[in-house]
Specification:
The protein is α/β, with parallel strands linked by helices. The protein has 15 helices and 12 strands. It is elongated, with a radius of gyration of 29 Å.
């Protein structure tokens, strides 16, 4: 009887087998490809036809977003003018399972004519693509997960994983940081999480602050005016020494509460973050400590304040 779960598990098992074989087979050719791309003055021109072309587009996008300038060039379009997109300083990364994709012919000839290095990803050593490449990244000979039609499945999974491996190796070789990555991803949840605390904090003019000797009767007014549910308590040099929340006020609401000072009620050494702290880390820190607002400090002085709603409003989750 038809069992979709068994079929799915078999597909995944074959693709996992392919990835494990790919991992085991990585060697000096991979390192040489990384060095070649890293030292290139131009971009990585990623190309492929059919399913390999779809994978090539994704690899180009991953390269570009992680600090390695890249573009996808369709091999058929290359024969009709798009070869002009490829410069002598570029590196070509060409994908073809068989290595015999006819549409790649003109592009490979162009690369040879102008001494543009080619890195190939193919399953067939000795193929036309393999022979045209300075570096050949050979995929393991693992059967496709779709045995009925031999449609690219296992092979394309290995291609996309190899592209990811190249991109991450290049990223780390360039010292590409989360800050750099955020510059290429200003939109969506990913971009929001990679923004800095300084980008979403309320600035100095909005901070609810009071001195150590401030009477609690005045602290209530500071908290109410600030609208953040808390007040930062600072010393004479402006250093943040404590915090009082509206919850603290309720807990200390006794007969003599009004006669106390901020220093007597505050929570000392409050949790803080820095202007360069990532927004995603700020929200995680507040969630972990079950707090709804946090001061941003620089040189131990409060320079901003972030409420949990500030994170949620820009899509950090």
């Amino acid at each position: 009887m038809f069992n979709s779960l068994d079929i799915a598990r078999n597909v995944l098992a074959l693709e996992i087998k392919g990835l494990e074989a790919l991992q085991a087979g990585l060697g000096s050719d991979f390192a040489a490809a990384v060095d070649l791309i890293h030292n290139a003055k131009g971009r990585v021109v990623v190309t492929g036809m059919g399913k390999s072309g779809h994978i090539a587009r994704k690899i180009a996008a991953t390269f570009s977003s992680t600090g390695t300038p890249a573009l996808f060039v369709h091999p058929a379009e290359a024969s009709h003018g798009d070869l002009g997109m490829i410069s002598r300083d570029d590196v070509v990364l060409a994908l073809s399972k068989s290595g015999e994709t006819a549409e790649l012919g003109d592009l490979l000839a162009y690369a040879a004519r102008f001494s543009i290095p080619v890195v190939s990803i193919t399953s067939v050593a000795g193929s036309a693509l393999s022979k045209s490449a300075q570096i050949d990244l050979l995929l393991p000979d693992i059967e496709e997960a779709c045995g009925e039609t031999f449609a690219p499945t296992t092979s394309t999974t290995m291609m996309i994983a190899l592209g990811d491996a190249l991109a991450v190796a290049l990223l780390r070789g360039r010292g590409f940081s989360a800050s750099d990555f955020q510059g290429f991803h200003p939109g969506g949840k990913l971009g929001a999480a990679l923004r800095k605390a300084r980008d979403l904090m309320h600035g100095p003019d909005a901070l609810p602050l009071a001195g150590l000797d401030t009477p609690m009767t005045e602290i209530v007014a500071v908290i109410s005016k600030g609208g953040f549910g808390c007040a930062g308590i600072v010393d004479e040099k402006g250093g943040l020494k404590g915090i009082i929340t509206d919850g603290d006020i309720r807990r200390h609401f006794t007969g003599d509460a009004q006669s106390k000072t901020a220093a007597e009620v505050m929570t000392q050494n409050p949790r803080t973050v820095y202007p360069e702290t990532l927004a995603g880390d700020v929200l995680a820190y507040m969630s972990r400590n079950k707090i709804t607002a946090i001061f941003v400090i620089s040189d131990e002085k409060p320079v901003g304040l972030i409420h949990v709603h500030d994170c949620l409003s820009i899509g950090v989750a």
